[in-house]
Specification:
alpha/beta; Rossmann fold; 2 domains; 11-stranded mixed β-sheet; two-stranded antiparallel ribbon; 18 helices; 13 strands
Length: about 475
């Protein structure tokens, strides 16, 4: 049994916590502000730092000092997008990195979005990376609230869903949730109910004392004992701690938070007149700059080009001539230029189509020279890696016919698989599938393989040498 010493019991004996049991059964810590929750979490993290991978969701920046002593990676989220944080969550599991997600510098809305994206990335990691991880969430009531607050419903749903996955479905994926909250009444019940181990600290409100007593199996009249607990004292119960409620005093820690509590400092004697001159010193007021005159937005560039063409036709009437069809090679080249544009893999189809229309108008073609449907098929074909000549082959037309039966968002994924299978190449990796699907989430891209198999257009097989895909009806297979 791998156990660590959490603190001392009432009789001075060591109170240990069984780490493997904790990883399987999760932990809930509750206590009012000043009860010692952060000290308890720091003790737990320090004692297990060399035994298990750790991820700390830190809304106040209290735990960044772990990096100096134990080598944790500190991720400051202020300059990170949701997509990059989700990808970081997957990579943290792949590389088994202990991380402190520092949310101190961002507002509440971004805290929820960042924590939700990062935890979802960890949850969606491939099965090969399901190593045990101790996921500690301080101030859990912020990320799994009972009711909405000043944040948007979308951000709250994202964070609450991630916390629910962590506590309800994370065990099979190796995610062991340790959540700490000031008030149980503010924490979503479906998140708190999944914990089997409890450490209850000092609490004064009747509703919180009653709920803590219910969780510990104590009588209601014994609930008032939570008011008498000293700072750093907790009632422990659970398969990883004790079979009966047990008082534990948390042991010392090595590291300390950057933020220290208030310290009494003697007041320096200063006369009221001197204070008046200092506090009421005139402030130079600057004349505000005149507001800029609002200008109407510039007209659409495509509309400008159409207007320019209409003016030229009015000034110089063109001779009547038969309509000339656009050169297929020219259209292929225009779509290839759109695909080669920076970030085109993740742009919406409407944006890419507008880019194509602009390029067509610049070359003198009609903006409707290629309809949206044929444009999408040509775009997916180029992304799949085919050249102009092979795109006219009978085999590829049959692959496009199969793709036409699928939703538009997965057609690119299927055509990429069809091309690699037709050429007998290795199955595309997760990043290539994500680009074809237009997402930064590798887990979401992998799920499209299962969807295509359910639609009976591919056969998916995982082998010791990697993933293999066969196209139903055509018999093409990846290497």
């Amino acid at each position: 049994m791998t156990s660590i010493v959490l603190g001392q019991g009432r009789d001075g004996s060591d109170t240990c916590i069984d780490l493997p049991e904790l990883l399987a059964t999760r932990l809930l810590v509750q206590g009012n502000s000043g009860s010692g929750k952060s000290h308890l979490l720091r003790r737990l993290l320090e004692q297990t730092a060399t035994l298990v991978q750790q991820v700390m969701i830190d809304p106040e920046g209290d735990f960044v000092t772990l990096a100096d002593h134990y080598g944790h990676l500190v991720i400051d989220v202020e300059d990170q997008s949701e997509a990059s944080l989700r990808a970081a969550g997957e990579r943290v599991r792949a590389h088994r990195a202990s991380v402190v997600l520092n949310l101190e510098q961002v507002e509440a809305e971004m805290q929820l979005r960042a924590a939700g994206a990062f935890l979802n990335g960890m949850f969606d990691a491939p099965r090969a990376h399901w190593y045990p991880v101790l996921v500690v969430v301080d101030e859990a009531q912020l990320f799994a609230p009972v009711a909405g607050g000043d944040t948007s419903d979308e951000a709250r749903r994202l964070s609450l869903g991630a916390m629910t996955n962590l506590m309800c479905r994370g065990r099979k994926r190796g995610l062991a949730g340790v959540i700490a909250t000031q008030r149980l009444a503010k924490l979503a019940k479906n998140v708190a109910a999944e914990a089997s181990n409890f450490l209850m600290g000092r609490t004064f409100l009747d509703i919180d004392m009653a709920r803590a007593a219910d969780l510990l199996g104590m009588e209601r009249r014994a609930a008032e004992s939570f008011r008498d607990l000293a700072r750093g004292q907790f009632m422990a119960l659970g398969p990883a701690l004790s079979r009966r409620p047990k008082l534990v005093t948390i042991g010392p820690v090595t590291t300390a938070s950057h933020a220290t509590g208030p310290v009494l400092v003697p007041l320096e004697p200063v006369s009221a007149e001197d204070l008046r001159d200092i506090i009421l010193e005139p402030v130079q007021e600057f004349t505000p700059r005149p507001r800029r005159e609002t200008r109407p937005p510039p007209p659409d560039l495509l509309a400008q080009l159409d207007a320019y063409g209409a003016e030229r036709e009015a000034e110089e009437p063109a001779p009547v001539a038969a309509a000339v069809e656009a050169d297929p090679d020219q259209l292929w080249s225009l779509v290839a230029d759109v695909v080669a544009g920076e970030g085109s893999d993740y742009k919406p189809l409407a944006t890419l189509y507008q880019d194509f229309q602009l390029r067509a108008r610049i070359q003198g073609l009609s903006r409707n020279v290629l309809e949206l449907g044929p444009f999408h098929r040509m775009l997916a074909t180029i992304r799949a890696g085919l050249d102009r000549e092979r795109s006219e082959s009978e085999d590829w037309k049959q692959a496009q016919a199969i793709a036409a039966t699928l939703p538009e968002d997965v057609q690119g994924v299927f055509l990429l698989l069809a091309r690699t299978a037709l050429d007998g190449e290795a199955c595309p990796g997760d990043e290539a599938l994500a680009r074809a699907y237009g997402t930064h989430s590798l887990g979401r891209a992998r799920r499209q393989l299962n969807y295509l198999e359910e639609r009976e257009v591919i056969v998916l097989q995982d082998t010791p040498l990697g993933r293999r895909v066969a196209i139903v009806g055509r018999g093409w297979q990846t290497a």
